[in-house]
Prior knowledge:
Distance between the termini: 42 Å
Radius of gyration: 30 Å
Protein name: Helix-hairpin-helix domain-containing protein
Pfam family, one: HHH_5
InterPro entries: RuvA_2-like
Amino acid sequence: MLSKLHVIIDGDSYENFQKLIDELEKLDFYVERKGIGKKIVQIPPNGGVLILKSKDLEGKSSMSNIQKKMQDFFKLIPNGVIIYENFNQLGGIKRDLIQKILFNQIFNTESTFNGIVPTRKPSETALCIKSIAKREQIEDNPPILSRTKRKSKYLSDYQVFFIEGLLQCGPKKAKALLKVFNTPQEIINTILYDPDKISRIKGFGKKFIETNQKLLQGNLK
């Protein structure tokens, strides 16, 4: 399993992406060169970006060419994102043209359009790709709520571990309670039925007692 963030770039287009590759490698990406036959950046397992530039808007058929690129891209990567690099350098005519293309894509009922991100230079494009790669490749695992069982041969260690399960109670407090009371059962009974004995022990106040009474009675919200 790769520890670095990972992208795939078409081998035939490698030179065209060299500035971007340099920026990605600065961000510690693993850039794989592969003959995918598309001038896109794939972000495994399911992501990718189509990068458009000012030169893509040159020529009489530029509008239809870009629309075709976008359609092909979304067929390959339905959840892909379009990045328009050097957007700040576009003149008025080209801005109007790209606006028409995007409106056509957005309001097409068969479109899977997911948005466009304007960037000024390859370093900004690389940061956008990094954000997408993190979403695609780094699992967002919830924290483990269970406690890890301690290995021990002694009953006293297991008793401490058991009492630590009370709220607001770490190892130090658990040991303090077990110095006063002989067993975990005695501690629980005292919390429920004779809480004044608990409050006399240093470090155990009203909040500790009330919270754990609710816990043990099943009234904790």
